Amino acid sequence: MNRNVSLIGAPTDVGAGARGASMGPEALRVARIGPLLGEMGLNVEDRGNLTGPANPWLPPVEGYRHFDEVLAWNRAVHEAVYAELQSGRFPILLGGDHCLGLGSISAVARHCREAGKKLRVLWLDAHADFNTDQITPSGNIHGMPVACLCGFGPQPLVEIGGHVPAVSPKWVKQIGIRSVDAGEKQLLHDAGLEVFDMRYIDEMGMRHTMELALATLDANTHLHVSFDVDFLDPSFAPGVGTTVMGGPTYREAQLCMEMIADTGRMASLDVMELNPALDVRNRTAEVAVDMVQSLFGKSTLVRRAPR
Ligand SMILES: [Mn+2]
């Protein structure tokens, strides 16, 4: 795994239905994301925060809230993530709401196209984020990034990475899903995304789920992880805008992260939707950082290195 890591803060909640995810990057820094990764032997550079328009907090216009602001933030994220990948570094996007997954993953896809790499995206989330302006109940664009990446959405958003669609639905595996809107469900099925929802994880277990989700990786694969903190069960990670009960337990989530680390293929990461305004003494930020450490190979039990 690339151990030269760049932290990129994207302090905005323009795509969300609650204010507060704009404070996520700083809460992750307060929880010592940089120093703790540094202690694991990673070379960490904190690039500070991107800038963009303020959140005007307006109702939807033609199906979207804050379209222009979302576009501006995603363009900034796209350029920042792309620049880190081009200089051979591992970008970690500190969100910010999940609409920015569009800017981040479109940059990763562009990099992979140019470098001849195969792309796989693991979308860890309580929600499928596969809405469009036609079916969205709220107009909040943080419910739409996966659809936009797959080419379903407004032209300026879907073509951010210069190639439409930015990713094939076949490259995306969703894990932990437990809240999907009715129209979204149909569109997900039609597009052919592989979704490992909570029912699947309940029945088959996290280990089997991750074995399948990671089965097609090879030496030429760039694995991107888009970690929405609401993936975690809110009993131990309450600091998000859209909590949904019945998520992975702490141990299940750790296993998920450790199995990703074991592949050695993760090459970029988003940590999204942390909302300090809804958190309790920064506990969710600390849990999120704990999970990120596991993604980089920190295991709970001390294990001997394989011979
Ligand atoms: Mn999400």
From TrEMBL:
Cellular component terms per the entry's GO annotation: cytoplasm
Cofactor note as given: Binds 2 manganese ions per subunit.
Key word Transmembrane present: no
InterPro entries xref list: Arginase (IPR014033), Ureohydrolase (IPR006035), Ureohydrolase_dom_sf (IPR023696), Ureohydrolase_Mn_BS (IPR020855)
Protein name: Arginase
Reactions that this protein is recorded to catalyse: L-arginine + H2O = urea + L-ornithine
Domain of life: Bacteria
Gene Ontology process terms (BP): arginine metabolic process; urea cycle
Native organism: Azohydromonas caseinilytica
Annotated positions binding Mn(2+): 98, 125, 127, 129, 228, 230
GO MF terms held by the record: arginase activity; manganese ion binding
Family: Belongs to the arginase family.
SUPFAM superfamilies: Arginase/deacetylase (SSF52768)
CDD domains hit by this protein: Arginase
Enzyme Commission code: 3.5.3.1
Cofactors that this protein relies on: Mn(2+)
Matching NCBIfam families: rocF_arginase (TIGR01229)
Pfam family, one: Arginase
Pathway(s) where this gene product acts: Nitrogen metabolism; urea cycle; L-ornithine and urea from L-arginine: step 1/1
Protein keywords: Arginine metabolism, Hydrolase, Manganese, Metal-binding
Entry-linked PANTHER family: ARGINASE
Phylogenetic placement of the source organism: Bacteria, Pseudomonadati, Pseudomonadota, Betaproteobacteria, Burkholderiales
PROSITE patterns per record: ARGINASE_1, ARGINASE_2
